[in-house]
Amino acid sequence: MTTLFLILVGIVIMLCIWLNNISSRIGIPTLLAFIVLGIFFGNNGLVPLHFQDYDFAKEICTVALIFIMFYGGFGTRWDSAKPIVREATLLASLGVVFTAGLTGLFCHFVLKWGLVESFLLGSMVSSTDAASVFSILRSKKLGLKNNTAQLLEMESGSNDPCSYMLTALMLSVASGTASGIDIAWMLFAQIAFGFAGGIGIAKLASFILERFRIKGDGFDSLFILATAILSYALTDIIGGNGYLSAYIVGIVLGNTDFPGKKTLVNFFDGITGLMQVLIFFLLGLLARPALLHKAILPALAVFGFMLLVARPLTIGSILTPFRKYSFKQQTLISFVGLRGAASIVFAIMAIGNDTLFQNDLFNIVFCIVLISISLQGSLIPWMARRLDMTDADANVMRTFNDYSEGTEMQFGSIAIAPGSKWDGKHVKELGLPRNMLIALVIRDGNRITARGNTLLQAGDKVILVTKAFDDTETFLVERRIKNGSRFDGHKISDFNTDGLILLIKRGEKEIIPHGGTILHEGDILVILKTL
After folding, report:
1. What is the pTM assigned to this prediction?
2. What is the pLDDT of residues 246-262, one digit of tens each?
């Protein structure tokens, strides 16, 4: 049974990778493909898995959302976000409340739903989806005018905690377990403990990263992974908003300088992508296609109202007083309000709450997310061009923490042998290429900062710095010379090798080769190859 399960998991992952490539080519948002895949394996799909455990799904999605929240902060470049932090904060808090309130009023007065159920749905779909926004901005390299990309990124990355708080509040009201005092305390504890827990954990983690060196490859990633989990769990256990805490910890650590941070951004990019796949795949598994026809009309009505009324009114009421956001810019910001993973998690929370609702909230949210990702997500680049909000000179990657302001630099070292051309010469006499610099000279264990008049001597170890070369079509391979090989005992120049031999590993020695270097059995050749 375990083997069959592992085979199925492997097949699903392979299909996800394939769908990711297909969706990018035809312009369909990737997450939509994962929903379709989940439906294919769902209860009424072609390969039914008969999965209907909402409690288990809620726990899985809760964990997944921790990493999504954390990465929303960790990937945010604070220097780029500073100019719009006030507006983004208002959109992520008041904006969520306004959207939830307007949507709730629409459901109550137009769709004739119960008051609590109306505001519960409004709360569940009140936040925008960070992963979808990030994915579209990155994949389309969509540079936007007037800090629009930064504003969209920070709003979508930080508004889920408020939506979660409203959803939890409405679920308490729906179940009849919350009094006025309980509601007031919940709101205070969620915000106060969420902020305090996030700042405290972030400061402690930053102190550890700055004062202690984490040894072992990959253990720094595990440390940040554990920090992300604890930022939610420790805050949640005392009644605070764990998602708010995870976001704050993410944004503090993401903007703290420590070794290997850029690699960690890429690591969490992969983790968050996996969590997104998991949530949307679970959504597809839990969906009941046979009931979608009953949910599609109210979902279309709610989606249309949010797109044309609730979101524009919210954006306009918050951004207009700043007097620097044009109507076109507000229109684009309003249009990019995609619904996604968080709404799904909150809908699963409602299903597992054991409270009976008159409407099929899960399938309605399912349809809203499906329409939002497929329609809005596909049309965002077109809408940006239509509104003349694209900027060819703007680099959208500047808003993310894995962007480097300058060119990546690469260090190398050479040892100066007696009688070499560099022995006894000043640095300024060497005639180095324009893009190469001697940064350091190590002499008898002492480190000397290289200047133009620094005199080089035999025995010095010279540290060179130049621009790094990053090319996915160039790579290194290793080949061992076996017994009886035609290379054994011959010079490198005697053969036309497939690629350039950069290094020879011979026992404990590492040899930089030249044409006259003789190869021996057991040598390991490091060869540069290109596609």
Report:
1. 0.72
2. 999 998 988 887 766 66
